[in-house]
Every structure is written in structure tokens, then in C-alpha cells.
Amino acid sequence: MAIDWVHAWPTALAAFLASIVEFVEALTIVLAVGATRGWQNALAGAAGALAVLLAIVLLFGPLLTRIPLRDVQLVVGGLLLLFGMRWLRKAILRSAGVIALHDEDEAYGKQAAALGTGGGGRLRWDAVAVTTAFKITMLEGLEVVFIVVAVGAGGAGLLVPASLGALGALIVVVALGVALHRPLSMVPENTLKFTVGVLLSAFGAFWVGEGIGLDWPGGDWAVAALTAGFLGLSVLAVPTCRRRAAALRPLPNL
């Protein structure tokens, strides 16, 4: 089936950006496992998790085609909206300085220190290392699978572009990880989460509207208007949250 990229590219982009965030977090821990307990164990655990995730996509992706499209759009759109709003809330609070930014270097150091105490670096087969790499890849990968399935459920033929977007993100992150052998701390993670939160919220709102039979002005182009709306409100929310946090902060003792 030919893919209409005029309408499919926003789906692929949303899946790509969201997947990069999750893959970077997984790569940080996998690199720590490889550096401290052996690359064979780290790669075995990560590869096992990716195989399980691929099986989940192949199993549940086609099942969506058997459900009426409006039902899928309403349920998945609602979940996607909640998912995007959760990311967007955290990104706004981080941008406002209310909660700390996520530091991949710090996460790498903590995981490396924890694994380094296990004394399993010389073992050819290290169950702790394999399990750690498997669990983090599985945890972050499940979120990627959810995003791919949810974004791909928005219309006929969108599952393939969403999957290609996630696959592209995986290739980019793995290539950078192989080249750099360190956490991708240069990736502006909070900016990515801010952007992805806006996109997922816009897609979710659009598909909820489709699911309840709303006739969006402009058809699929309404996604662009929703994206602009969520982005504008989110940008305005950052200084508001910053002022609110400053007002609630206790005064220093004089």
C-alpha cells in the first residue's frame, strides 16, 4: 500500500522525536552496563528486549485494523492526550526551574557506580548486567511501542510511517552511542520532551475529536493549529509557573 507522505510525515516526525527521548534514556544505562560489566552482557540484554518489543508491535499493530477506526481514535487519542500532557507538564516545570533538569551524565555515573560494586565485570555471562540492560530497554521501549501504536492508529496506513519514525530514531541513537561511547548529554532532552509533549497532545486532541465525530476545519491541517495552540499556551505557562514558584519559595532567614 502506497504511503501518502503529505499526511503521514507529521506522524513519522512525532514518533521519531518521542522515540529519540526514550532511546537516549535507555542508551545511557546500557552504556553504563557495558562499561562496567562487559559489552557482551549489555548488548545481549538490550537485544533481547528489542526482540520482545518487535514481537509486541507485530502482534498488536495489525489487531487495530479490526476495530472500528472511530473507536480506536477516541480511546487511543485520549490516552495519547494524557501521555503528551504528562510530558508537557514536566517539561514546563523543568523550563521554569521548578523541578531539576534530567542529567544523562549524572544518571550514567550513578548506574555505573551501582553496577561497579557487583564484582561481576570479569564474568563471561553476568545475569545482573543482562537483566539491567534488558529492563531499561524494555521499560523505555514499551513507551516507544505505545507511541508508535497510538500515533499509527490515527488513520489508515499510518502505522508504517510511525514505525519508520521510531526505527529512524533507534538508528540515530545507536549510531551516536557507538561513535561516542558515552551518554548523549548534548541532546537537549527537555527541549525534545517539550516539543514531543506538544505534538502528542495535539495529535491526541485531534483524534479524540475525530472519535466523537467532530468535523475539524481544514481536515488534517487542524493538527497544525492544535500544535500551535498547545505550544503557545505552554510557552506562556513557563513564566507563570516560574513566578508562582518564586512566590511560594520561603524567604531566607535574616
How would you explain this protein's 3D organization?
- The structure is a single chain.
- The protein has 254 residues and is mostly helical.
- It has one domain.
- 76% of the residues lie in helices and 0% in strands.
- The chain has 8 helices and no strands.
- Helix 1 (5-37) packs antiparallel against helix 2 (39-60) and helix 1 packs antiparallel against helix 5.
- The longest helix is centred in the N-terminal third of the chain and has 33 residues, at 5-37.
- It is globular, with a radius of gyration of 20 Å.
- The protein starts with a helix and ends in a 6-residue tail after the last helix.
Radius of gyration: 20 Å
Oligomer: single chain
Poorly predicted spans = 119-123
pLDDT averaged residue by residue: 76
Topology:
Elements: H1 5-37, H2 39-60, H3 69-95, H4 104-116, H5 127-152, H6 159-180, H7 189-211, H8 222-248
Helix pairs in contact: 1-2, 1-4, 1-5, 1-6, 1-7, 2-5, 3-7, 3-8, 5-6, 7-8
Fill in the keyword field for this structure.
254 residues, mainly alpha, 0% strand
Describe the structure concisely:
This protein has helices at 5-37, 39-60, 69-95, 104-116, 127-152, 159-180, 189-211, 222-248. By secondary structure, the protein is mainly alpha-helical. It is globular and about 60 Å long.
